[in-house]
């Protein structure tokens, strides 16, 4: 009986036009057109990856090394949650692994895998939206959507590079891996929507409900924090709503299978992927990361934070997301009236991407986290416009029943355009490899799988000659050559919460080589030095640095210097340091802040941190009782330096009570060039704009 009812209800699930294709047998070219379109999309993804496959990445603060870290650890047999904590989530790295391993597992292979999958996810996003909006001929809609996305990538890469940064960098965020695999992280709801569409468009059964639920549970457990739980949980809610609203049967057994399979999928996938250490991974993601990300990462000032609905709307306007918000409301109303699966899944995708952006923005700061929501909104608009145009043209008498000749002409023109674009993409990728081969500034490094800038050869050679492990501030070339470390995280910025102490313990053993970012690399070095002084203070006191590459310093152990104490006191909301001479000082400040996990924090002036909007201030951990940080005294004046504080947000009473402090004058080991290398920290700050 249940099976019979399910069969009768199947047409209600289809958000489609019941009419078939136009009469007449299409030619082989017309029948093969969807396959041709999909082949073009695949070729573009491969050539885009191939184009960037030739060069060995060297910027260790880039996302290539963050991606490589997880892939190398998986190849080494390490387990997430047990041996390391993947900051990007398990699945976004895991989906890259087959390509990475198939190519040989070198550093450039991580670049190829990330570029390939990023473009494929972008093409799949547009293709799936075309399927859901068009409502009929799903294979054809998927192929046209994917090919259109691929053609846009070719145009941006070869004809109009400005497209990557247009519309607030939307195309770049959607099709390039960037620093954190955003396109792959944002693909979670689309993957689940595809599963739901394929399974439920033909009917509702207990077995199909279980598969949909299990898929939601797996994605919730393994995907990134911003999109995994939201995508999985929201799909369960949407399907449950549709079952109750449409009266799908079997109702209770189906819903029990849906939610039960989701719970089982979450636990099984999480426990298997972490070798039974799922609780450890959850503690890192939802305790260590959550409690630190709001105050630790910049920008820090109020315009870049959400403290009210008005703040949220202003940020969404800046990120071109207000129109998608209005569109989501309209699509939701349409889904309620139409009650079809396709329109409901379009609403689900809009809501999931909105919530993903909301989590990142509210939980942290402004960083274009609404890119996926903006992409959804403008892609739905574009696909919808094409659909309406096609319907309008179909009403014209001359085009209502087009002959085979006209259809063949259109198909042939399409294939010709794609052939030209595909050929150009292949030739460009091949040509780029030839440029590196002919450039004397680069040499091929078989161990890294590509052409390496000659300026970084000494760093790589030194790492290969060393037998002792290397500690790196960020995983970079030395760490790649050295092999996956045993620490749970690979960079100081991922050492959040309890992992900060564990990472710092690596210096307690006095490693023979520590690699950090060269001071002149960018302004974020000043933030790193200020916020991660717990890591740097041992280096400044007991190591000697030398340039290891244009972007890095290599620190080796030296006889530790003795730091002389200087008077320090707190006066209300200020710290007063008796600094008799210009130089660097360390302040250990004891205070009582708003508490761990608070959505507010205090910053104290140290005249070092000039990253983005820091303006010489460093944030204090709101849940700590003491924090050490360096201070640059450029002009000691009468010998008294006053360090002001400021609260974020600053519209209430004092957030933090300063209790006491101690301070020391920072000196360096004998013979160390630390002062010369970091002398820019004591240079006068640049004049204010317009000053």
From TrEMBL:
<protein>
    <submittedName>
        <fullName>Uncharacterized protein</fullName>
    </submittedName>
</protein>
<feature type="transmembrane region" description="Helical">
    <location>
        <begin position="84"/>
        <end position="105"/>
    </location>
</feature>
<feature type="transmembrane region" description="Helical">
    <location>
        <begin position="29"/>
        <end position="50"/>
    </location>
</feature>
<feature type="transmembrane region" description="Helical">
    <location>
        <begin position="369"/>
        <end position="393"/>
    </location>
</feature>
<keyword id="KW-0472">Membrane</keyword>
<feature type="transmembrane region" description="Helical">
    <location>
        <begin position="141"/>
        <end position="164"/>
    </location>
</feature>
<feature type="region of interest" description="Disordered">
    <location>
        <begin position="1"/>
        <end position="22"/>
    </location>
</feature>
<feature type="transmembrane region" description="Helical">
    <location>
        <begin position="320"/>
        <end position="337"/>
    </location>
</feature>
<feature type="transmembrane region" description="Helical">
    <location>
        <begin position="256"/>
        <end position="278"/>
    </location>
</feature>
<feature type="transmembrane region" description="Helical">
    <location>
        <begin position="405"/>
        <end position="426"/>
    </location>
</feature>
<keyword id="KW-0812">Transmembrane</keyword>
<feature type="transmembrane region" description="Helical">
    <location>
        <begin position="111"/>
        <end position="134"/>
    </location>
</feature>
<feature type="transmembrane region" description="Helical">
    <location>
        <begin position="184"/>
        <end position="200"/>
    </location>
</feature>
<feature type="transmembrane region" description="Helical">
    <location>
        <begin position="344"/>
        <end position="363"/>
    </location>
</feature>
<keyword id="KW-1133">Transmembrane helix</keyword>
């Amino acid at each position: 009986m249940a099976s019979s009812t399910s069969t009768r209800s199947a047409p209600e699930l289809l958000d489609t036009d019941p009419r078939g294709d136009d009469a007449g047998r299409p030619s082989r070219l017309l029948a093969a057109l969807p396959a041709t379109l999909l082949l073009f999309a695949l070729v573009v993804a491969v050539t885009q990856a191939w184009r960037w496959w030739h060069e060995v990445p060297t910027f260790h603060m880039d996302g290539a090394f963050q991606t490589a870290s997880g892939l190398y650890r998986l190849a080494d047999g390490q387990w997430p949650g047990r041996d390391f904590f993947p900051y990007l989530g398990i699945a976004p790295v895991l989906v890259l692994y087959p390509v990475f391993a198939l190519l040989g597992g070198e550093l450039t292979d991580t670049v190829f895998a990330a570029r390939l999958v990023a473009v494929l996810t972008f093409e799949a996003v547009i293709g799936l939206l075309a399927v859901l909006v068009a409502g009929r001929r799903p294979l054809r809609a998927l192929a046209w959507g994917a090919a259109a996305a691929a053609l846009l990538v070719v145009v941006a890469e070869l004809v109009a590079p400005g497209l990557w940064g247009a519309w607030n960098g939307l195309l770049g965020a959607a099709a390039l891996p960037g620093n954190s695999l955003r396109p792959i992280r944002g693909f979670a709801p689309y993957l689940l929507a595809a599963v739901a569409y394929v399974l439920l468009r033909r009917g509702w059964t207990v077995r199909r409900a279980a598969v949909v639920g299990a898929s939601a549970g797996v994605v919730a457990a393994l995907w990134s924090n911003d999109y995994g739980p939201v995508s999985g949980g929201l799909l369960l809610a949407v399907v449950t709503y549709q079952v109750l609203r449409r009266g799908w049967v079997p109702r209770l057994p189906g819903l029990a299978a849906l939610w039960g399979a989701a719970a089982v999928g979450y636990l099984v996938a999480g426990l298997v992927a972490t070798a039974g250490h799922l609780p450890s991974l959850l503690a890192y993601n939802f305790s260590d990361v959550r409690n630190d990300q709001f105050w630790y990462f910049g920008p820090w000032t109020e315009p870049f934070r959400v403290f009210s609905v008005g703040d949220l709307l202003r940020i969404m306007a800046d990120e071109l997301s207000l129109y998608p918000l209005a569109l989501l409301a309209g699509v939701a109303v349409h889904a309620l009236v139409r009650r079809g699966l396709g329109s409901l899944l379009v609403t689900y995708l809009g809501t999931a991407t909105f919530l993903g952006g909301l989590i990142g923005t509210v939980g942290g700061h402004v960083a274009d986290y609404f890119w996926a929501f903006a992409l959804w909104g403008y892609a739905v608009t574009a696909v919808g416009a094409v659909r309406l145009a096609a319907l309008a043209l179909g009403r014209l008498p001359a085009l209502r029943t087009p002959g085979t000749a006209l259809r063949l002409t259109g198909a042939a023109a399409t294939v010709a355009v794609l052939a030209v674009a595909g050929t150009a993409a292949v030739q460009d990728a091949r040509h780029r490899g030839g440029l590196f081969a002919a450039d004397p500034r680069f040499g091929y490094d078989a161990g890294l799988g590509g052409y390496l800038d000659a300026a970084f050869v000494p760093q790589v050679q030194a790492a290969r000659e060393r037998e002792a492990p290397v500690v790196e501030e960020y995983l970079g070339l030395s760490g790649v050559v050295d092999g996956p470390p045993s620490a749970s995280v690979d960079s100081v910025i991922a050492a959040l919460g309890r992992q900060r102490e564990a990472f710092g313990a690596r210096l307690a053993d006095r490693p023979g080589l520590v690699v950090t970012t060269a001071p002149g690399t960018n302004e974020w070095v000043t933030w790193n030095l200020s916020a991660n002084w717990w890591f740097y203070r041992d280096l400044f006191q007991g190591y000697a640095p030398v340039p290891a590459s244009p972007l890095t310093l290599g620190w080796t152990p030296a006889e530790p210097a003795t730091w002389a104490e200087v008077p320090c006191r707190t006066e209300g909301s200020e710290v007063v340091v008796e600094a008799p001479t210009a130089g660097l000082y360390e302040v250990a400040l004891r205070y009582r802040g708003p508490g761990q996990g608070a959505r507010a924090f205090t910053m104290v002036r140290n005249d070092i941190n000039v990253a983005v909007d820091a303006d010489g201030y460093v944030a204090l951990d709101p849940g700590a009782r003491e924090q050490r940080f360096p201070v640059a005294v450029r002009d000691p004046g009468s010998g008294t330096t006053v360090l002001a504080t400021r609260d974020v947000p600053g519209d209430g009473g004092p957030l933090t009570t300063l209790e006491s402090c101690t301070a020391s004058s920072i000196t360096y080991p004998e013979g160390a060039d630390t002062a010369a290398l970091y002398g820019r920290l004591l240079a006068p700050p640049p004049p204010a704009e317009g000053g």
